[in-house]
Write a structure and sequence with these properties.
Protein name: Putative acetolactate synthase-like protein
Cofactor: thiamine diphosphate
Number of helices: 17
Order of helices and strands: HHHEHEHEHHEHEHEHHHEHEHEEHEHH
CATH topology of the largest domain: Rossmann fold
Keywords: Membrane, Thiamine pyrophosphate, Transmembrane, Transmembrane helix
Radius of gyration: 29 Å
Strand content: 5-15%
CATH class of the largest domain: Alpha Beta
CATH architecture of the largest domain: 3-Layer(aba) Sandwich
Helix content: 40-55%
Number of strands: 11
Largest sheet: 6 strands, parallel
Shape: elongated
Family: Belongs to the TPP enzyme family.
Oligomer: single chain
GO molecular function: acetolactate synthase activity; flavin adenine dinucleotide binding; magnesium ion binding; thiamine pyrophosphate binding
CATH superfamily of the largest domain: Thiamin diphosphate (ThDP)-binding fold, Pyr/PP domains
Strand order of the largest sheet: 2-1-3-4-6-5
C-alpha cells in the first residue's frame, strides 16, 4: 500500500510539474496570443518601419546615427518616411546633435546607434543631456534575443549602463511592443523635468520574419527528438516576436505631463513683486521649454519691465539693445535687489551656491525639478516662495497679474550704468 501511495504521489508531482511547465511556456511565449494573432510570415514589413512611423508621428525631422547592421532597418525606413537621416563620424556626435535639435526646436531629439561599444561611446553626450535637462531619445541595437548572454557579437549589458543616466530605459521584446514602448519613452522624455531616454532593439524585432527565421539556426530535419524540440522552441520564440506585430496601432504622441503653478502660488508671487522697489529676474534654460513660445515669454518680460540676467538657452532672448537685459555686475545687483525671481536659475556654483543671494531679498524660486528648486536652500539661502512648476507658464501668469505695475526707472538706469562702466573698463 505504501508503495502505491508513493507511486501515486510521484506521478501527481510529475503531472503538476509538467502542467506548470506548460503554463509557463504558454505565458512566456504568448502561445494563446499567437493563436489569435498569428505572425505575418510572408510580410516584408519589419520593426524598423514601425519605429520610423512613430518618429514621424511625433514630428521628428532629423535622425542622427552612425549606421550598423543591428539598426539598418530603422535608418532605411526613416529615410523612406521623409526623416532626414544624418550619418556622423562618431556615436557621441550623433547624441550631441540630437541634443542640439531638441534645445533649438523644443521637440524630441532622436539618435540611433548600433550595439555594444557603439552605444557606450554615447555615454558622455547622454550625461550631458541629463544635466542640461534635454529631451533626447537614444535608440540602440542589441544582440538577437535568443543569443543574449551567450557571447553574441557586441552583446553587453546595456541597460545597466543607461539606467543611471536616463529617465526611462526599456528593451523591446516583440514587434507589437515597439510602438507602445517608443510612445511612452518620448512622453517621459518631455514630461516634468525633461531628459534623455533609452530604448534597446534586439536585431530580431527590427528585421522581417523570413530573415529572422533564416538566422534563427533551425536544425535540419532529423529523426532525433532533441532536434525536433529545439526547432519547436525556436519557432515558438520567433512566432512570439512577430505575433500581432503589424496590426493597426496608434503611433501618435501621448499627453505630456508638465507641473503647473497653482493660482494661489501665482497670486503670492504677484503680491511680492508688486510691492518691490528693486526687483530682479534671473532666467535659466528651463524658461525656454514648451509649452510657452519664447516670443510670448519675451513679451511677458517686457510687459513686467523687470531687469533680467539671462543664462543658458535664454541668452539673446531680449535682444542686444533691450533696456531690461543686464549683463554685468550681477553680484552687486543681487545685493541690492529686494525681490529676486529665480526663473529656472539654480543656486549652484554659478550663484556661489546661494551665497550671492541677499538675506534681505524676497526670493521667488520656480523650477520643474524639486531637487534643483531647493538646492542649498536653508543653508545658503531661503526662498520666500518655492514653486515646482513650468517656468515659462509661471512667468506668463505672473505678468498677467502685474498689469499696471511699473518698475523703478532709476533702478533700471543704475544697473545699465554699471553695465556701461564695466564694459568700458573691459576695452
Amino acid at each position: 500500500m505504501a508503495i502505491v501511495e508513493v507511486l501515486l504521489y510521484t506521478i501527481g508531482t510529475v503531472v503538476l510539474l509538467l502542467l506548470a511547465a506548460i503554463a509557463f511556456a504558454v505565458h512566456k511565449y504568448s502561445i494563446i496570443y499567437q493563436f489569435f494573432h498569428p505572425p505575418a510570415v510572408n510580410s516584408k514589413s519589419n520593426g524598423g518601419d514601425i519605429v520610423a512611423e512613430v518618429l514621424k508621428a511625433h514630428g521628428v525631422k532629423f535622425l542622427f546615427t552612425l549606421c550598423g547592421g543591428h539598426i539598418s532597418p530603422i535608418n532605411v525606413a526613416a529615410e523612406r518616411e521623409g526623416i532626414r537621416v544624418i550619418n556622423t563620424r562618431h556615436e557621441v556626435t550623433a547624441v550631441f546633435a540630437a541634443d542640439a535639435v531638441a534645445r533649438m526646436t523644443g521637440a524630441i531629439g532622436a539618435a540611433v546607434v548600433t550595439a555594444g561599444p557603439c552605444l557606450t561611446n554615447t555615454i558622455t553626450a547622454v550625461k550631458n543631456a541629463q544635466m542640461a535637462e534635454t529631451p533626447v531619445l537614444l535608440m540602440g541595437g542589441a544582440a538577437v534575443s535568443l543569443l543574449k548572454g551567450r557571447g553574441a557579437l557586441q552583446d553587453i549589458d546595456q541597460m545597466s549602463l543607461f539606467k543611471p543616466l536616463c529617465k526611462f530605459c526599456a528593451a523591446v521584446q516583440t514587434v507589437r511592443d515597439i510602438a507602445p514602448v517608443l510612445r511612452e519613452a518620448i512622453r517621459v522624455a518631455q514630461s516634468d523635468t525633461p531628459g534623455p531616454v533609452f530604448v534597446e532593439f534586439p536585431i530580431d524585432v527590427l528585421y522581417d520574419y523570413q530573415n529572422v527565421l533564416k538566422g534563427a539556426g533551425l536544425n535540419s530535419p532529423k529523426g532525433d527528438l532533441m532536434s525536433k524540440i529545439v526547432n519547436m522552441y525556436t519557432m515558438s520564440c520567433v512566432g512570439n516576436i512577430f505575433a500581432g506585430g503589424f496590426e493597426l496601432r496608434e503611433y501618435g504622441p501621448l499627453p505630456v505631463q508638465r507641473p503647473m503653478a497653482s493660482s494661489g502660488q501665482v497670486q503670492q508671487a504677484v503680491e511680492l513683486v508688486s510691492r518691490a522697489k528693486k526687483p530682479l529676474i534671473i532666467l535659466g534654460s528651463q524658461a525656454t521649454l514648451p509649452p510657452t513660445p519664447v516670443d510670448e515669454l519675451r513679451k511677458a518680460l517686457e510687459a513686467m519691465g523687470i531687469p533680467c540676467f539671462l543664462g543658458g538657452m535664454t541668452r539673446g532672448m531680449l535682444g542686444r539693445n533691450s533696456p531690461l537685459h543686464i549683463r554685468q555686475r550681477r553680484r552687486d545687483a543681487l545685493k541690492e535687489a529686494d525681490v529676486v525671481i529665480l526663473a529656472g536659475a539654480v543656486p549652484d556654483f554659478r550663484l556661489n551656491y546661494g551665497r550671492v543671494l541677499s538675506k534681505r531679498s524676497k526670493i521667488i524660486a520656480v523650477n520643474r525639478n524639486k531637487s534643483q528648486l531647493l538646492l542649498n536652500a536653508g543653508v545658503m539661502w531661503r526662498p520666500a516662495l518655492a514653486v515646482q512648476a513650468d517656468v515659462g507658464s509661471f512667468l506668463l501668469e505672473v505678468s498677467k497679474g502685474l498689469t499696471g505695475f511699473n518698475c523703478s526707472s532709476e533702478w533700471i538706469q543704475s544697473l545699465k550704468a554699471r553695465d556701461e562702466e564695466k564694459e568700458t573698463s573691459n576695452l
